[in-house]
Structure formats: C-alpha cells, structure tokens
Amino acid sequence: MRILITNDDGINAPGLSVLQEIAEELAGPDGEVWTVAPAFEQSGVGHCISFTRPMMVSKMGERRYAAEGSPADCVLAALHDIMKDARPDLVLSGVNRGNNSAENALYSGTLGAAMEAALQGVRAVALSQYYGPANKDLDDQFEAARGHGLATMRALLERGVWTEDDYGIFYNINFPPVPSADVKGIKAARQGFRRDMGFGVQPVSSPSGRQFLWVTGAPQQQPTSPGSDADVNLQGYISVTPMRADLTAHDVMEALTAIE
C-alpha cells in the first residue's frame, strides 16, 4: 500500500511521528509512506487552499517534503506533483495535538486535508488525540493514539464503508484523553456540538499601544449529547465518525419546495 501522511501541526510535530509509525505498519514491507506536511503550524485553517499565492515545496529527505501552505495544499501538492505518477492508496492526516471532535472538526486543518483527499477520490482518515487531565502530564501525550491507532485503522480499512460517489466518505478518528491502558474500545459516533463553547476573541495592547485580538477557545471537558464523538471520547472510547464534504441540509430540502 502507498500511503501519504500530512498534518496541520507542521512537519516537525510529534504527532506526525506517531502517524508515521502507524502508516509504516499499514503499508507493510512492500509499501511506501510519503510525507508532505506544512513547513509551519497551520492549526485552525480548515479546508483553506493557497489560491492567490504560490507555495514553495522543499524536499527534506527520501519521500519527505515540506510545503509552505495549508494541509489541503499539501494534499494537492502530493497528488498533482510529488506523487503524480503513482498516487497514494490512502491519505492519513494527524495525529493532531488536541481533539477534533464536535464543532472543532469545522475549523480543523487536519480534517481539511482528509476532506481534500476525499474530493480527489482518495480514501482518507483524520486522526486526533484528545487532551485532558488524565493524559496531559504523561511522558507520551499521544499514548492512546500510539497504542491503538494501528488496530483502529486496520478495523476501519477492513470493515468501514468507503464510497466512490461525488462527495465520498472520509473519516474522523479521535483518541480519548486517557492513557493507552484505559482506552475502552471503539465506537462509531456522530459529530457532536458543545453548547456555549464557541471560539471568541480577547483584546490585548502591545507595548507600543497597538490593539490586537487573540482568538480564544474554551474548555474541552464539557459534556455533549449522548452518543456523539466528544461524549464517547470523554467516556474513554475512540470515536470513528464518517463524514462528507456535502454541506447541503438534506433534511430541509423537501420543506423548501414551498418556495418554488
């Protein structure tokens, strides 16, 4: 198997090393693992692409490249330039530093890369490691992802649903905020929503008197609706969420016939 790995934390992020280990096992001795990742951190850029400026791509080693662009840019660079003569069979994005459950998924560059791969007709999975009181002080904060990532990916590849329609399925995996030994298993879960947990801004003044705004987040340990991704993560389970890039609210379409 030929696998492309990327992320949004940058090419030197520790989570990418965890993903490299998972990908090498999946690819097997006769497979290949290629890395095309952002040269610098790109957290929170979502599905952004560098449409109005070129990006520089640098070869860092054998099958290893850094791109001055977003995670989605990295996928485009790999599929249409670096790996154009032998496209990957699978794109893995992560392992993100922090969860991409619930509404976080909408901002995530990690998911942006997986989404772009799916739009390009390649199987894709985003992987993220939830942080919390039980794992934030571990020597290896990615312990749950490292310990369970390979088995989770093998189960998904063997028994998951993969489609080849216009907006193909891609997957969002989140490892729970617990040590590896405390992971309870895998659950298929819908995307959740943390109420009163949206991003905001905090104004600050620089020493020169200029005004700036820092984007602020919110605590990630708040409960969400039962059975959703963040809910099962906080219970100690790995969440696997199928996603599509189709943004249509299909449940509303029939009601809109009244305006035609």
Give an overview in words.
It catalyses: a ribonucleoside 5'-phosphate + H2O = a ribonucleoside + phosphate. Its main location: cytoplasm. Keywords: Cytoplasm, Hydrolase, Metal-binding, Nucleotide-binding. Belongs to the SurE nucleotidase family. Residues 3-195 form the Survival protein SurE-like phosphatase/nucleotidase domain. The N and C termini lie far apart (49 Å). α1 runs parallel beside α4 (143-159) and α2 packs parallel to α3 (109-119). The model has no long low-confidence stretch (mean pLDDT 96). 25% of the residues lie in helices and 25% in strands. It has six helices and eleven strands. The protein has a single domain (2-195, 223-247), classed as Survival protein SurE-like phosphatase/nucleotidase (Stationary-phase Survival Protein Sure Homolog, Chain: A). The radius of gyration is 19 Å and the shape is globular. Strands 3-4-2-1-5-6-7-11-8 form a nine-stranded mixed beta sheet, sandwiched between helices. The protein has helices at 14-27, 71-82, 109-119, 143-159, 229-234, 250-253; strands at 2-6, 32-38, 57-61, 64-67, 90-97, 123-129, 170-175, 185-188, 200-205, 211-216, 237-243. It is α/β, with parallel strands linked by helices and 260 residues long.
